[in-house]
Design a protein that fits this description.
7 helices, five-stranded parallel beta sheet, binds shikimate-3-phosphate, alpha/beta, Rossmann fold, 5 strands
Length: 169
């Protein structure tokens, strides 16, 4: 496997970062960390509550700080939140401390995979499709900017995706 100290998965909501990341870590015998769950553990509350109390800016500050802390360590597969690439400092740290895989997903697949989700504040309204489209336009260049590898998750269920992706690493 690549000699970078960590493997980081970036990409939009519904790309499969957590489910694929957990399986990849198992295959490679690495620790798995879900950055969003780590934020919830550290704050003792949920992401929707953080958005409600501190706004998106408050969440982003926690997200960057958590990621910076996690990247001090090594030997981990880290699944980031879809917006982790918004912060320039985080992008730089990911590039320095990880091999970065950009998990790609089409809008149709995203909508399908997130159909029953109620845990993501940014898509809590009725305008899910428009929001996801807009986020994709804003963030795709940022994912591209730091990606060492791109992997299209559309054709696969997570277990197959992990097998296919592991072959490329
Ligand atoms: C977000 C994605 C979520 C979570 C938060 C914000 C985003 O993570 O961090 O709801 O800005 O795209 P997932 O990408 O794991 O869904």
């Amino acid at each position: 496997m690549n000699p970078a100290p960590n493997l980081v998965l970036v990409g939009p909501m519904g790309a499969g970062k957590s489910s694929i990341g957990r399986r990849l870590a198992g295959r490679f015998g690495l620790a798995f960390v879900d950055a969003d769950r780590e934020i919830e553990t550290r704050t003792g509350t949920t992401i929707p509550t953080i958005f409600e109390c501190e706004g998106e800016a408050g969440f982003r500050a926690r997200e960057s700080a958590t990621l910076a802390h996690l990247l001090l360590d090594e030997g981990q597969v880290i699944a980031t939140g879809g917006g982790a690439v918004l912060d320039a400092g985080s992008r730089q740290r990911m590039r320095e401390r990880a091999f970065v895989v950009y998990l790609q997903v089409s809008l149709a697949r995203q909508l399908d995979r997130l159909a029953r989700d109620r845990s993501r504040p940014l898509i809590a309204g009725d305008d899910r499709e428009q929001v996801l489209q807009r986020l994709s336009e804003q963030r795709a260049p940022l994912y591209e900017e730091i990606a060492d590898l791109r992997f299209d998750t559309d054709p696969w269920f997570p277990p197959q995706a992990a097998v296919q992706l592991a072959r490329l690493l």
